[in-house]
Amino acid sequence: MFKSVLTWGPLQKKILELQGEEIRSRFNEIEKGILGALDFLKREANIKHYKMIPFPGLLVPLSAFFATNKTEGISYSSKQKDIILKWFWRSLFTRRFSAGVNERQATDIANMLGLKNDENYDFKLPKNEIKFDFAKSNFSAGNANSKTHILLLNSLTPLSLLSGATIDLNKVLKKASKHEYHHIFPKKHLEREGFARNEINTLSNICFLTRADNNSIKDAAPSVYGAKIDSDRKNKYLQKALIPGTFESLNYNDFIASRTALLEQRAKDLMA
Q: pTM value?
């Protein structure tokens, strides 16, 4: 990673030819680049922990933008911020750094350094498209699609459905607890309805809940626990969780279709 931050040439060979002394002499610059990249994601994308980044390879181009010897670090304009965020979300939803990482890093490093020097630089952005299916991808907190889903939900600062408590993603990660991830149509409820595991554990059926709310809901059907949501705040809670307003009255297949549409629209908004 350090070598990649130091050079923006399109050839991997140029990066590999760097000597250890050059890296050591520019260590401060590299360190500030990495810390600046992480601080940007925390400040502008509400990503409070590096472990939630689905593709660590994207940190290399972002670190190149923030690499500096200046004590005060790199400042950025509103236009630069918007372009970087668009690049970030498009990189996630297109799974840009899932393959061909070296070549794509070199291309994006060049783009980032061009943008760093000129906010009007002709930055070549990834396509505005989603290369995985929320309705068919299964949830596992450690895989890239699930992390992208978590960051998508976290972008709206979700509230727990029953208590309205703010979900602190940083605490969720520190506890490494599965209890803050909730099947909106609970697993056992769907098993009783005859649904298979891969149908139940889809990304479109996952939201955040506090452990207390999760324990309160247990395996109750949405038609049961939905009645417990504060009616005055229900719309707010559901909108922040990207859950259809009539979720408790929908059958499971219709719910998945409706929520997938909401998730896809939010993804498109972030990439626009």
A: 0.89
